[in-house]
Amino acid sequence: MTADVRALARRAKEAARVLAACTHEKDHALRAMADALDNRSAEILAANEEDLAAARPEVRAGRMSEALFHRLQLTRPKLADLVAGLRQLAAAPDPVGRVTLSTQLDAGLLLERVTCPIGVVGVVFEARPDALPQIAGLCLKAGNAVVLKGGREAERSNRALTAALGDAIAGAGLPPEALALLATREEVSALLGAEGDVDLIVPRGSAALVRHIQEHTRIPVLGHADGLCHVYVDARANLTMAHAVVIDAKTQYPAACNAIETLLVHETVADAFLPRIGRTLADQGVELRCDPAAARRLGGVRTVPATDADWATEFGDLILAIRVVPSLDAAIGHINTYGSRHTEAIVTDDDAAWARFFAEVDAAGVYRNASTRFADGYRYGFGAEVGISTGKLHPRGPVGLDGLVTYKYRLTGAGHVVATFQPRDRT
Amino acid sequence: MTADVRALARRAKEAARVLAACTHEKDHALRAMADALDNRSAEILAANEEDLAAARPEVRAGRMSEALFHRLQLTRPKLADLVAGLRQLAAAPDPVGRVTLSTQLDAGLLLERVTCPIGVVGVVFEARPDALPQIAGLCLKAGNAVVLKGGREAERSNRALTAALGDAIAGAGLPPEALALLATREEVSALLGAEGDVDLIVPRGSAALVRHIQEHTRIPVLGHADGLCHVYVDARANLTMAHAVVIDAKTQYPAACNAIETLLVHETVADAFLPRIGRTLADQGVELRCDPAAARRLGGVRTVPATDADWATEFGDLILAIRVVPSLDAAIGHINTYGSRHTEAIVTDDDAAWARFFAEVDAAGVYRNASTRFADGYRYGFGAEVGISTGKLHPRGPVGLDGLVTYKYRLTGAGHVVATFQPRDRT
């Protein structure tokens, strides 16, 4: 099996070499992929129905959540969205071949930095079949081959989707090995060892899964284990705005990685802000874990004393830690200590406070007067995302097409040699 | 000692937070650093003389090469170059705060991608004291704190340089902890374990050193272990140009990572090209390790049969492997199999061959009609470099200021929440 996966990765690498030299052929394939989902929807929905049938007893027995079941389900409207998404990708400009730096080094000697595909991308994702065409489409548009492993609950759906998309790719004259689907956990282990053939691993799912993958491969990993985000309500915050932002960031979808876990409030606005937000949060069923200064201002609602562990915990649920801080400096210090470099927001009308917050907070997204829930490829206008990266080197944040290409330097001369070359002064 | 290094890394992290919010203050510090090297040159050269005195018996005993001794030596002209380099950095535009993407997501909701410092950078470099002010200057200009460890032969020089530069940084009102020098190998081991405080490790030196570091840290590593570069002389090459490029790429500085190890020649030009290049290379003392097809064309000069291992070896010396290939496809296949993703060149007058070579060769630099020796931060116009990266994610190639910054997304709204947000169609 390990040998099989290695061979599959090699064929993906060969396919990636072909894709790297493609331009409009990729768009042709994307339109064919859209048509295939459309034409073969009955077959895909039937496979999905088998997955759903196997899942229903799990939901009844309480072993699968309603939310997970909902994500597992493909519907005609969901398929229509996927078809539209692939057509949009086909119409988007090619992310490959963009010149991001250009310097004439000498007469006839031109240096350019040009975007190019990453190569072979391995994506391990949750039991959510609609992610498959999105990831496959993004990778193909960026000229990458992709090896996928979805959650086992979606296995039949994923096989049907991969069959339809792979046939479309082949029909468009591109190598079908550019899209491969793994079936087992053992195959994922083999993929993690395919250094040299696989260029990037993107794990999506639980923090435990992401950490396991980070610790078991020497291939670069893109993604994030934790999403521990904060909203800081500054001394000069518009408190109505702060109220709306905090409620959205905590309650609109508490399981999301970009929902907040801790609310920081400057002490000068704590009296004015905390009682009201506390009532709204409590009304919405949010458990409030407070430091003493916050608890004191929340007399009317039930609170729980916050422990040190709470500042470092991604609850992923209707639980919010609350801390009163004496200064902007203390808020930034707290965030840089406990945050997961994902997305951090300040609510303030003070430009100087915002400038310091933006410069000094270390995170992929730093927001002013907006909810952390905006950290999402769709809302950023990237069309879709393969994941959200909290790494410090490129790419960072929601990763769409731009994050799926890297660059090579292009140097074109007329026989130039360094023995006779004198660089101009240029820093 | 481990605890000491951890504390030093923490202080560097605090210093990095200060630097992240600086703009022109960094340039003020860079000019002060230039002045300090100028004013304290006697002290620095005296320290260097002690290093040289300790090194001379090693050279006489054959334990240190003349080349290494030469790199160890600081001179007044070398110091003057360093002073000029720091002044150039001070005058350069700030790489931090550049907006590389900007989208209006909604009325009053602006998303920008903005360059920012990486944080704390650890650099392990060779016994070459002139690299210290260059690396320190690049890191500071990019808003990063830096922890350095130079080769032990340059210990006294590095201490004198660090003292002068650190005092200048403090005198300019910036935290001197932004520049720290480690003394021992044990301290480097401790630094490699300082995940969370150190954001990037840059190893420079032997492939063995780089591999050791890659295998002993979970901090991202920027650099390259091998420099296995090729020149491919295509069927439609200008052979005079090919001759000049090959001689430069092999002989101008054979120990450099961007010198070539293997020459690939298309069979249709092998008869015309190989006898002449073979004579020139042999005259310059280059040992030629040839496949049978190449050896057959090199009757006049001494050749050695190439083994499979030769294609995978970075000789770093006056040795060149030579192979005749039947096609452009075979040349690209050879390069992608044996190359180290560093720098690869084609000599051709054929635009279609160049287009395929550029698209399909997987390397940080892909050149046409120019010597691979151009892969160098100084020649690329980056002023200096902290290293050359063969990684596939940003940064890639010679790493100057641009490679020392990453980005964060800046989102500014007026209380925007996702609950009421509808993204526009945009891919």
Topology at a glance:
The structure is a homodimer of 427-residue chains.
Chain A: H1 2-20, H2 24-39, H3 41-60, H4 66-72, H5 76-91, E1 99-106, E2 109-117, E3 120-124, H6 131-141, E4 145-149, H7 155-171, E5 179-181, H8 185-192, E6 200-203, H9 207-215, E7 229-233, H10 239-251, E8 260-266, H11 267-283, E9 287-290, H12 292-296, E10 304-305, H13 308-311, E11 319-325, H14 328-338, E12 343-347, H15 351-360, E13 365-370, E14 387-389, E15 397-399, E16 405-416
Parallel strand pairs in A: 3-4, 3-6, 4-5, 7-8, 7-12, 8-11, 9-10, 9-11, 12-13
Antiparallel strand pairs in A: 1-2, 2-16, 14-15
Keywords:
homodimer; 427 residues; alpha/beta; Aldehyde Dehydrogenase, Chain A, domain 1; Aldehyde Dehydrogenase, Chain A, domain 2
Describe the fold and architecture.
2 copies of one chain form a homodimer. Chain A is an alpha/beta fold. Chain A folds into 2 domains: 2-222 and 386-410, Aldehyde Dehydrogenase, Chain A, domain 1; 229-374, 3-Layer(aba) Sandwich (Aldehyde Dehydrogenase, Chain A, domain 2). The first copy, chain A, is built from 15 helices and 16 strands. In chain A, helix 15 links the parallel strand 12 and strand 13. In chain A, helix 1 (2-20) packs across helix 8 and helix 2 crosses helix 7. In chain A, 55% of the residues are buried.
